[in-house]
Task: structure prediction
Amino acid sequence: MISYKLSSHQQQVKDVVHWFAENEMRPISLEADKMGRVPDDWLNKINQLGIQLNTSSFGEDKKSSQKSGKKAKSERQANRLAVIATEELGWGDPAIALTLPGPGLGGPPVQSSGTPEQKERFLSIFSKDEPPRWGAYALTEPEAGSDVSGILTTAQKTTGGYILNGQKIFITNGARASWVVVFATIDRSLGRAGHRAFVVEKGTPGFSCTRLAKKMGIRASETAELLLEDCFVPEENLLGGESYYENRGSGPSGFRVAMKTFDNTRPIVAAMAIGIARAAFEYTLDLVRKEYPKHGRLYHLASEKLARAELEIEAARLLTWEAAWKADIGQSNAKEAAMCKAHSGKIALEVCAGCLELLGPAGLDGQIVEKLYRDAKIFDIFEGTNQVQHLITARHLYEPHGVRV
Ligand SMILES: Cc1cc2nc3c(=O)[nH]c(=O)nc-3n(C[C@H](O)[C@H](O)[C@H](O)COP(=O)(O)OP(=O)(O)OC[C@H]3O[C@@H](n4cnc5c(N)ncnc54)[C@H](O)[C@@H]3O)c2cc1C
Result:
């Protein structure tokens, strides 16, 4: 069984990140939302800490890292630490959290599928001694969002590398990134088996940002459209190298890289949504405690709404921790990752909407809950929509019985 009590190391991480969220993120939150960007001077100042947070490099629990072999492996803490920390960042400001320097969503595929040389080349650039840098992850295309098996970006083999052509949309930190993990197909007729992942570096001829999206929420987070026009990418930038794909015969290849990423990142995205819900809830609870006792019957109505919010937040957190725990102990967590992502995205919106109702018009007047409500919406869209998470869950209900959907 697992313990619900945070270890002293987990509690320490939570406290440090909460301090950062409250004292560094919140003071610039509304202004960054209004400007549609996180100020550069803030990013320069925060670079050192930002890299640590963005890469979840809090290190392992001291006790477990001292142990060796199988036991130490079974006590990995990285995924649990990541969700604990990310909930606090979401509480602080989700758009700023997504803009913290570091490899971002591009990190997991490089980490899980890159060769040792690629990991060194692409991940070592995120250092506290360097200026702020970002990585990004480009899978989505105009004709391939939920169903990524339909990507149209092509990678044509040529001497010493590949020529990439295609368009990517909605790419977080896509314009500011030093490199982007780009998914492309070497042969559309092969379906998923034809997919490959490339690390495309900023400044590569034929690789450009064509537009930055204007969004309803997480406005301070950069969302880019990227174009690849006869873009030559050297073969050493093919993630995992040629042998990575050859070893897997005709099975899913670049597609496997993409999906592996989601199983690790969905609990983290869920945790950020929980942080949003908790921020709206705490703000509203504080006001209700002060104001509502004067209003008799209304107080009971508010209590019911708040109790429901508390329940939803707690339930979402437990689902998310379970998904992270399974990843830590090396068990498949695809179903739990899908369920926690779907549930947390849904309740973040519901809790924020409920809080806005309780606050009345005052909540809409440039206040944090109004912003959180806008920010929450994206959490049931990116990293796979809620409907898609339910499809993944359903697949896990059918497949053990030999039914494929
Ligand atoms: C702010 C933002 C940041 C993002 N960041 C990134 C990023 O960094 N990298 C990246 O690669 N992508 C990113 N995305 C893209 C995001 O992952 C996609 O938007 C998402 O996967 C949905 O794809 P789509 O927009 O094409 O919607 P569609 O796939 O067209 O879906 C439209 C609707 O149809 C539903 N639907 C689709 N298929 C099914 C089905 N089989 N059954 C039932 N319903 C279905 C969906 O649930 C949805 O409601 C980002 C998006 C946004 C908005």
The pocket of flavin-adenine dinucleotide is lined by residues 105, 137-140, 145-146, 170-172, 215, 223, 378, 381-385, 387-388, 391 (CB under 6 Å). The longest strand covers residues 161-172. The longest helix spans residues 254-291.
